[in-house]
Write a structure and sequence with these properties.
about 200 residues; single chain; mainly alpha; 9 helices
Length: about 200
């Protein structure tokens, strides 16, 4: 079995108990988008890119696994070169929105593509579905009522509406146009139906 297939099996097993917003289907969508963007860059190291994407959500603070210790152990088990392991781990750390809320141009091409693909999966129809699914798993309300819990609509303002400005590649920026327009249209319609002031 080759390294990529072994990695996919490892990640699929590790993510089997995750909420549906951070499941293995998310990884596959991000991988597909990353591969499409990478076709435009002949100097992109596909192995590094694909390993970065496949492993990027294994250890996430939202999922209560905020270090790369397990990923490092897994990569060590594959007997990869130390500099390859370091590159993959550095790329994984570069993807996170919480760690990188502003655009960081000092990351590798592979990290930029992986980050773009991951952020594209957070907007558009699937991004909206993931947002509500995650909020539901935490029992967060859609919007402010009698609770002090974070709301789903807050997440639109804190993250989703900003993502199109934080993309690295022209290809991702082009894809994001339609998805961002849909995101905004959905938000406006939601506010209308919920009789909320639309703060856009």
């Amino acid at each position: 079995m080759d390294i990529l297939n072994k990695t996919e099996l490892y990640v699929k097993e590790k993510m089997s108990q995750n909420d549906v917003a951070h499941d293995f289907n998310h990884v596959l969508r991000v991988l597909n988008t990353a591969n499409e963007i990478a076709k435009n860059y002949i100097n992109c190291d596909l192995f590094i890119l694909q390993m970065t994407v496949i492993l990027h959500d294994i250890e996430d603070k939202k999922l209560k696994t905020a270090t790369n210790s397990n990923v490092k152990k897994f990569l060590d088990s594959l007997e990869l070169k130390e500099n390859t392991i370091k590159t993959i781990l550095d790329n994984i750390n570069a993807i996170s929105f919480s760690k990188n809320p502003i655009q960081n141009k000092n990351i590798s091409l592979e990290a930029k593509i992986a980050q773009d693909a991951d952020r594209l999966d957070a907007i558009g129809a699937i991004g909206i579905a993931r947002t509500f699914a995650y909020s539901g798993s935490k029992n967060h309300p859609f919007y402010k009522c009698d609770s002090d819990l974070p709301t789903t609509l807050q997440h639109f303002h804190e993250k989703l509406f900003h993502l199109h400005n934080l993309l690295n590649t022209p290809e991702a920026k082009e894809i994001s146009k339609e998805r961002t327009e849909f995101l905004i249209a959905f938000y406006k319609q939601f506010c209308k139906e919920a009789n909320l002031a639309c703060d856009l």
